[in-house]
Amino acid sequence: MAINWFPGHMAKTRREIKENLKLVDAVIEIRDARIVKSSANPEIEEICAGKPRIILLNKSDLSEKPITNQWIRYLTKENIKVLSVNCVNGDGIKNIKPVLDELLKEKHERLKNKGLVKITDRVMVVGIPNVGKSSFINKMAKNNIAKIGDRPGVTKSKQWIKTKIGIELMDTPGVLWPKFEDETVGLNLAFTGAIKDEIMDIETLALRLIERLQNDYAEKLKERYKLTELDENPLVNMDNIARKRGAVISGGEIDYNRVAIMLMDEFRGGKLGKISLERPISINDAE
Question: Which of 47, 126, 136, 267 could be cross-linked to 87 through a Cys-Cys bond (beta carbons 3.0 to 4.6 Å apart)?
Answer without folding.
Answer: 136
